[in-house]
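Q&A log
Question type: sequence-to-structure
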Amino acid sequence: MTDTPETDFAGKMAYGDYLRLDLILGAQQPRSAAHDEMLFIIQHQTSELWMKLAVHELESACDAIANDQLPHAFKMLARVSRILEQLNGAWDVLRTLTPSEYTEFRADLGQSSGFQSHQYRAIEFLCGNRNAAMLKPHAHRAEIMRELEGILARPSLYDEAIRLLARSGFDVGPERADLCEQRNESDKLRTAWAEIYRDPDTHWPLYELAEKLVDLEDYFRRWRFNHVTTVERVIGLKRGTGGTQGVAYLRRMLEVELFPELWHVRTEL
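Response status: OK
Response body:
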């Protein structure tokens, strides 16, 4: 028996066909003659692809928790953490872009900015950081608005975790009336997590869920920090192309907590 690879792909599914590489590799269209614009485009395009996978996994993890399928949810959440690790690595490549190189094509970006990434917004909304005002940058795209509004209308990942605690007999207080609104930190929920952490053997699945959520936010925080550092390294304290205060805005985002009770309970243990 010979091990002869297939070489004739006439009328057959080939590697490039399956992955639609003609579309992906043809999507880089620099607007300037600057050598380094290609780096800038590919870094952001690949990040968007990873974010698409993160959204896919987070939505499935929400469904799994809602259906008490925790092992499935754990696998998906672990994968999201690894995706965020990949996104963190992308900043290392972008940091090779110097201020002199960036200024050669920055004006060609117009008002485009990572601030306008609807997939980043979807990740935040899915995790539980909900601010309906952040829909405004996407108002010109009806299909994107429908997608984001649909996410806001459903329980977030953290909402589903809280509902699971309630189904498990913990007093987590009443659910907020409007899922679109940002939830307030809850003393009752922090007390429930404290009981779980004090007796992990009794509450092992919930304990493991808590740690999977903390892992996810840990990597997410690192992603945000690396974003701030990279932007400051490349443009200093200039305003962002999308009109934000640049580094000052990104530093404020470092203070946002996705799962606050899980972080604050550690002080009590």
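Response note: The chain has a mean pLDDT of 91.
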